[in-house]
Design goal:
This protein is an alpha/beta fold. The chain has 16 helices and 23 strands. The longest helix has 24 residues, at 263-286. Bound molecules: (2R,3S,4R,5S)-2-(hydroxymethyl)piperidine-3,4,5-triol (DGJ).
Length: 566
């Protein structure tokens, strides 16, 4: 077992040193060796248990199955320090105002194991009971070894004991704030606590109020690309583990030989991902709820020095490593806080991969982010959850809104109001049909979406009737459309038939083929809603309502559109 003792402080006789390095090697075989298969799900025990939520994939599409059917996670992530019973009433107020069906909230290692080996799950029990009263599901965020890369949520007996739980060393041998991923002592302590927590959930939650668990929070290290301690250096100078070499289709060699200039960061990503995998495995062996990780992001397109983001965490450039290192995880999710359209869309693009279902478990709560909802769902996203809509008195401006109040929540609530009543239907449609979606770009220009035979044009900032370019100009722009705030979502229901949902946008359709002699028209546009999986007709849109495209305001309107030609 690797002790927490830094080598440099040990004045060991050579045979002791030899024994120690041998045990280091053994420990790291344990840490990095072939991943033992996750234990088969234990058979449900005594009480009547609901099916365990899980992710499925079919025809290249993903679904998050909860209670046996696809689930759309309309989430609200609580602030970091809202994880105590006293704060919960202020949390529920935000959840209600937003109209979320899921609350994401931390469970901190420091609160469940304040003294080593002694566990307190009273907060978890209160949370479970209150979530059920509110008819809201939970995603629990395990704040352990890493929380925004640092160990602040570890118990005192961990964070104050740097000998047993060593921090990383930088290239000059100075202590770094983050815990090293290279010590069995730290991994074992985190895994034990996490497994206890999962065991408690298994017993306390046969209803599956908790549907998903985040393992750690934004792993990696800021300002230092990897651990340079002797323990780490020895591994770095050694061969890249076979599992990674094979998975990345590389030839064997040392980290430098195999990965060149990326060696430091890839090394860190490998050891953090395999560490997180072990923590997840320990929890899943007890109770196999689906699990995921979230990422402090790297620029989606431009080079960024690894010291300027959470290096080693699941950033897009090391997602392949994470997929090999942590196969038990259902997905890696980007925490979206970039304020430009290009950056946001870039992150969505990077994390929407065949092997990585798109789920936005954390996005800023400044109103510019509300419209991103349409791009996320249009990219087959399984969930969307703004961060920090609770009334505990904290706002993370300038990342998010200046003030958390009803006005800040409203743009997000508007979107949830449309999708919440049809969340199950949408999740099913998105799993089985083609879906597209977009949100208003920063330059507010119209966008086109190629649907196949048809092309949809989405334009913004227009009055419902007048065409801006034909003389009868409405004065200025409709209130609320001055800044980018619109979006549209389209699903294919059948040939020439689409479900259309939008906010502050005009949606028009035309035949894609420019040479076609045919002209396009609306055959029928129905407004309605879903009830128990069935479409319920309310009225037909015609005349003004369709002569200038389909014009959406902030009302929660859902249309079924049949297109035709003449
Ligand atoms: C991302 C983290 O995951 C959150 O817990 C929080 O710290 C935000 N950053 C900033 O408010």
């Amino acid at each position: 077992m690797v002790s927490g003792q830094p080598y440099s402080n040990l004045k060991l006789q050579s045979f002791v040193r030899h024994a120690l390095s041998l045990s280091v090697a053994v420990a790291f075989v344990l840490l990095t060796g072939c991943n033992p298969k996750t234990a088969a799900p234990p058979a449900p025990t005594a009480q009547k248990t609901a099916e365990i939520p899980h992710f499925v994939k079919k025809n290249g599409r993903n679904a998050f199955i909860v209670d046996g059917t696809p689930y759309l996670l309309l989430g609200s992530q609580a602030n970091n320090s809202s994880n105590y019973p006293a704060a919960l009433p202020k949390v529920w107020r935000g959840v209600e105002m937003l109209g979320a069906n899921t609350l994401e909230i931390p469970v901190a290692w420091e609160q469940i194991e304040p003294t080593e080996g002694h566990f307190d799950f009273s907060y978890v029990d209160t949370l479970l009971a209150q979530a059920r009263e509110h008819h809201v599901r939970l995603v629990l965020l395990w704040f352990g070894t890493w929380k925004n890369t640092n160990p602040n949520y570890t118990p005192e007996w961990v964070k104050l004991n740097n000998d047993r739980f060593p921090r990383m060393l930088d290239a000059k041998g100075n202590k770094v704030y983050a815990l090293s991923p290279h010590y069995r002592s730290t991994l074992d302590a985190d895994s034990k606590a996490f497994a206890k927590f999962m065991g408690h959930l298994k017993d306390a939650d046969p209803q599956r109020t908790v549907i998903l668990v985040q393992v750690e929070n934004e792993t990696g290290t800021y300002g230092c690309v990897r651990d340079y301690s002797p323990v780490a250096q020895k591994l770095f100078d050694g061969p890249v583990p076979g599992q990674l070499v094979a998975g990345m289709h590389k030839k064997p060699g040392t980290w430098k030989q195999v990965f060149g200039k990326d060696a430091d960061e890839f090394f860190h990503a490998w050891y953090i991902s395999t560490y997180v995998e072990k923590v997840a495995e320990a929890g899943k062996a007890v109770y196999p709820l689906p699990m995921y990780v979230n990422a402090w992001l790297r620029d989606p397109y431009n080079y960024q020095a690894p010291t300027t983001y959470a290096a080693g965490g699941p950033t897009w450039n090391v997602l392949d490593i994470w997929k090999i290192g942590a196969p038990s995880l259902a997905l890696a999710a980007p925490d979206i806080y970039g304020h430009t359209y290009a950056n946001i869309m870039g992150q969505i693009d990077r994390y929407h991969r065949p092997d990585n279902p798109l789920m936005i478990v954390e996005i800023g709560n400044e109103k510019l982010f509300a419209r991103v909802f349409f791009s996320v769902l249009g990219n087959q996203g399984l969930g969307f959850s703004p961060f920090g809509f609770d009334f505990t008195g904290y706002s993370n401006y300038p990342l998010g809104a200046k003030k958390v109040d009803a006005e800040a929540i409203e743009p997000f609530a508007q979107n949830f109001r449309i999708l919440a009543p049809m969340a199950r239907e949408w999740a099913k449609i998105s799993f089985e049909n083609n879906v597209w979606g977009t949100s208003e770009p920063d330059d507010q220009r119209p966008q086109t979406i190629a649907l196949g035979r048809w092309t949809a044009t989405i334009s913004y900032g227009q009055w419902q009737l007048s065409e801006m370019h034909v003389g009868f100009k409405g004065e200025g722009k409709p209130p609320g459309t001055e800044n980018p705030s619109g979006g549209a979502l389209i699903a294919e229901l059948g040939p020439d038939e689409y479900l259309v949902i939008a906010q502050r946008a005009r949606v028009a359709f035309a035949l894609t083929d420019p040479k076609s002699k045919l002209k396009s028209m609306f055959n029928r546009v129905e407004e309605g809603h879903y009830e128990n999986g069935k479409w319920v007709f309310e009225r037909v849109w015609n005349g003004d309502e369709t002569d200038h495209g389909l014009n959406f305001t902030t009302l929660p309107q859902v249309l079924r559109v049949k297109l035709a030609t003449y």
